């Protein structure tokens, strides 16, 4: 593997102009032969380096810094979809198209990254920016606390993914083996801060672009932000020592296998290295536990997050679906079956704010692999549900439009029943199967859902969206009730909070419960 070592830092003002694009990239988007990928690591200056490089006249900027195109399994990796992310690419003057998706070095979460890259018809050069691995862990924890994904009290509960991102040799192995000695430039965050111009000269030489171009000196705004993140949260001396000891074998292998000087971070390169780990094999196309979203196919810059923490993409997804009949059914059933609940966990929210509406439930938690919904009233947790350990049981769990996405739906369903005695799920009902679609379980019917959960639900409705013909307009909503000593009943509870909606009863497996005020809600 060609590993060069050093680094660069920089701007932010230039990125807004570089990202703007013409908006004309469509089917006629030009084929691009050379890509430069900044792989990560997260919280190591990737944005600063990207901001510098997109000002070079021979580098085309992506419509967004982190499209994570090869990390997602939701869509087929058609070249034209990737090309659309560079609407301003001009083969007469641009030698590279660049992006900086840190998800590419988050093994083992995104297993298919190198599989997709290896099958893509283009040449790739890779840039990997690293920093002291314990400092990086500290900065990522601070970042997640600031985003509301974790709290200062529970940050240590699910740290394995964060620690794994700091196993730099392990992350590089994912590229070295499948891609056959790719060209990778290794850089150091500290050099980005100290001497960005010298580092940029090395990057220019690595890419083979015009060395006479002069990068403008700009405040290292994002570098400063990374430092500020670490100042808002500090690991204890005991925690730092424990993580350093855990990461020492990987650091030794980074030095021996990839020739990177880890002594600069206080690690002994002569320590016993970790064996090359067996990387998880690529998995069949599947999606994380989240509803479908526009993804990398759109060639429009992402909007800023709103006050609830949702991105423009998440707002767009939810605003276009919140008035659907299936969600009216969910509202009615949560109002009925969770009337007395004190805690609710929504699994696979991905920015969908339905949980915000259940205001009578004091504790509401939203969980997803990435970008869980969060607000002042809803705590977001970024975690893999199959390995997530809440350390308690929730009064009520919702999982909407998720089971038909995940590879092992049965394991996911059993996990839902393990964290609560009241579980409400929704799936696509009898949608035709499509080999190019991420919903690998279609068509889903009653028998398939019953097989996943090991029994029939206590209540089930089929929601038909009006004015939407064809089979792709129905969803099945099912409720599972397993409260010891409590008999399931459709009869409304005698006492309920005034905030909980009143609901009309519906027979099992028939009809749609109608929430109060349904006449005023028109399906989108």
TrEMBL record:
<feature type="domain" description="Sulfotransferase">
    <location>
        <begin position="37"/>
        <end position="216"/>
    </location>
</feature>
<feature type="region of interest" description="Disordered">
    <location>
        <begin position="1"/>
        <end position="22"/>
    </location>
</feature>
<dbReference type="GO" id="GO:0008146">
    <property type="term" value="F:sulfotransferase activity"/>
</dbReference>
<feature type="region of interest" description="Disordered">
    <location>
        <begin position="489"/>
        <end position="524"/>
    </location>
</feature>
<dbReference type="InterPro" id="IPR027417">
    <property type="entry name" value="P-loop_NTPase"/>
</dbReference>
<feature type="compositionally biased region" description="Low complexity">
    <location>
        <begin position="491"/>
        <end position="506"/>
    </location>
</feature>
<dbReference type="InterPro" id="IPR037359">
    <property type="entry name" value="NST/OST"/>
</dbReference>
<dbReference type="Pfam" id="PF00685">
    <property type="entry name" value="Sulfotransfer_1"/>
</dbReference>
<keyword id="KW-0808">Transferase</keyword>
<feature type="region of interest" description="Disordered">
    <location>
        <begin position="276"/>
        <end position="316"/>
    </location>
</feature>
<protein>
    <recommendedName>
        <fullName>Sulfotransferase domain-containing protein</fullName>
    </recommendedName>
</protein>
<dbReference type="InterPro" id="IPR029063">
    <property type="entry name" value="SAM-dependent_MTases_sf"/>
</dbReference>
<keyword id="KW-0325">Glycoprotein</keyword>
<feature type="compositionally biased region" description="Pro residues">
    <location>
        <begin position="276"/>
        <end position="285"/>
    </location>
</feature>
<dbReference type="InterPro" id="IPR000863">
    <property type="entry name" value="Sulfotransferase_dom"/>
</dbReference>
């Amino acid at each position: 593997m060609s590993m060069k070592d050093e680094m660069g830092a920089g701007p932010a003002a230039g990125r807004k102009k570089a990202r703007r694009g013409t908006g004309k990239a469509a089917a006629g988007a030009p084929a691009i032969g050379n890509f430069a990928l900044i792989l990560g690591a997260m919280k190591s200056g990737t944005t600063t380096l990207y901001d510098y490089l997109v000002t070079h006249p021979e580098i085309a900027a992506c419509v967004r810094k982190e499209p994570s195109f090869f990390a997602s399994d939701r869509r087929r990796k058609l070249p034209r979809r990737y090309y659309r992310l560079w609407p301003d690419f001009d083969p007469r003057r641009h030698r590279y198209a660049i992006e900086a998706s840190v998800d590419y070095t988050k093994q083992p979460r995104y297993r298919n990254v190198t599989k997709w890259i290896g099958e893509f018809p283009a040449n790739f050069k890779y840039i990997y920016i690293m920093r002291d691995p314990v400092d990086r862990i500290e900065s990522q924890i601070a970042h997640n606390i600031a985003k509301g994904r974790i709290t200062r009290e529970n940050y240590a509960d699910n740290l394995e993914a964060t620690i794994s991102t700091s196993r730099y040799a392990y992350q590089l192995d994912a590229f070295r083996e499948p891609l056959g000695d790719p060209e990778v430039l290794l850089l150091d965050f500290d050099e980005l801060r100290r001497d960005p111009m010298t580092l940029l000269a090395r990057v220019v030489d690595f890419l083979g672009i015009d060395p006479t171009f002069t990068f403008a000196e700009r405040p290292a705004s994002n570098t400063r932000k990374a430092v500020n993140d670490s100042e808002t949260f500090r690991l204890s001396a005991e925690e730092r020592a424990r993580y350093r000891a855990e990461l020492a074998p990987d650091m030794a292998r980074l030095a021996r296998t990839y020739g990177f000087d880890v002594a600069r971070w206080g690690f002994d390169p002569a320590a016993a290295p970790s064996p090359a780990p067996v990387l998880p094999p690529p998995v069949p196309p599947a999606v994380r536990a989240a509803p479908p979203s526009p993804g990398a196919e759109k060639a429009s810059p992402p909007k800023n997050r709103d006050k609830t923490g949702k991105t423009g993409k998440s707002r767009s997804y939810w605003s276009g679906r919140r008035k659907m009949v299936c969600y009216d059914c969910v509202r009615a059933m949560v109002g009925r079956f969770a009337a007395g609940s004190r805690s609710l966990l929504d699994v696979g929210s991905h920015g969908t704010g339905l949980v915000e509406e259940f205001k009578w439930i004091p504790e509401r938690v939203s969980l997803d692999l990435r970008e869980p919904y969060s607000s002042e009233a809803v705590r977001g947790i970024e975690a893999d549900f199959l390995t997530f350990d809440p350390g308690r049981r929730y009064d009520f769990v919702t999982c909407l439009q998720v089971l038909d996405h995940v590879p092992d739906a049965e394991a996911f369903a059993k996990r839902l029943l393990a964290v609560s005695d009241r579980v409400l799920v929704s799936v696509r009902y009898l949608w035709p199967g499509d080999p190019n679609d991420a919903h690998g379980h279609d068509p889903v019917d009653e028998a398939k859902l019953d097989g996943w959960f090991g029994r029939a639900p206590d209540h089930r409705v089929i929601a038909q969206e009006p004015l939407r013909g064809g089979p792709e307009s129905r969803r099945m909503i099912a409720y599972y009730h397993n409260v010891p000593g409590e008999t399931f009943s459709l009869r409304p509870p005698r006492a309920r909070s005034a905030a909980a909606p009143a609901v009309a009863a519906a027979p099992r497996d028939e009809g749609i419960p109608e929430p109060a005020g349904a006449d005023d809600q028109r399906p989108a």
